[in-house]
Amino acid sequence: MADEKTIKAAIKEGGKKGVDLDGVSAMGGVQFFNIAVETPNGDFTLLEKVLEGANAEVDESAEERKGGAGGIGKMFASAGDSQLAIIIHVPAALSEKLSVKEWTETVASAVGAEIVEMGEEVSKCKVLADQAAGKFPLKLRDEAIAAGLALLKTKGLIPAGDDDDDDDVNYAEAAGVEW
After folding, report:
1. Are 55 and 18 contacting, i.e. CB atoms less than 8 angstroms apart?
2. Helix or strand holding residue 116 (H, E)
């Protein structure tokens, strides 16, 4: 079980990611993101805390904005020493564009993940590390994010990245967020 300090760090990381996602979404209209997170280190309890922090209501009176991404579809992937843990959240209002089931199955299939939980809005999947089989959580995290990105592009949910248009600003990159 994670200690209180690590739990707070996971909520804080989620809160910061959430406000970034909310900002990018407001600027560019994108509603789905694939994000690498560090604090959970492959732990589902901490990954849930990251999601909790990201989805928290923004306290406008707070010194620092946190959260605000409850209405945004997101996949958080965390690589630890022993496993890659992935949590996907698709709010009901966005499920017609992309279901949590389709996103989860696509990513899980791409990296050979086991689906641990499949809810209406939230799912979890994992891949255990296996050096002999070449399964390294950090490498798999990048592959999961790439698979999620490919799905979002295919569904037209993020800009395709047309190199001919120099006027497009990559809002996510500017905010340090991976799609």
Report:
1. yes
2. strand 114-118
In whole angstroms, give the CA distance from residue 51 to residue 91: 12
Cα separation, 20 vs 31, in Å, equals: 12
Query: What is the domain extent for residue 115?
Result: 4-56+67-156
Which residue type sits at 28?
Answer: G
> Is the Cβ–Cβ distance between 144 and 84 less than 8 Å?
yes
Q: For residue 93, how far is the Cα from the chain centroid?
A: 18
Those residues whose C-beta lies under 8 Å from the C-beta of residue 75, and which sit 6 or more positions away, are 33, 34, 35, 86, 87, 88, 89, 103, 107, 144, 145, 148
Predicted confidence (pLDDT) per residue in 27-65, tens digit:
988 999 999 999 999 999 999 999 999 999 988 888 888
When divided into structural domains, the chain yields a total of 1
Q: Output the CA–CA distances (angstroms, integers) from residue 117 to 29, 61, 130, in the order listed.
A: 29, 36, 22
| Neighbour tally for 47: CB within 10 Å | 25
Residue type at 141?
R
- Say if pTM beats, i.e. exceeds, 0.85: yes
Q: Please report, for the domain that includes residue 22, its CATH number.
A: 3.10.310.40
Token couple for 7: 């739990």
Torsion-angle region of residue 6: left (phi > 0), alpha (psi -120 to 50) or beta? alpha
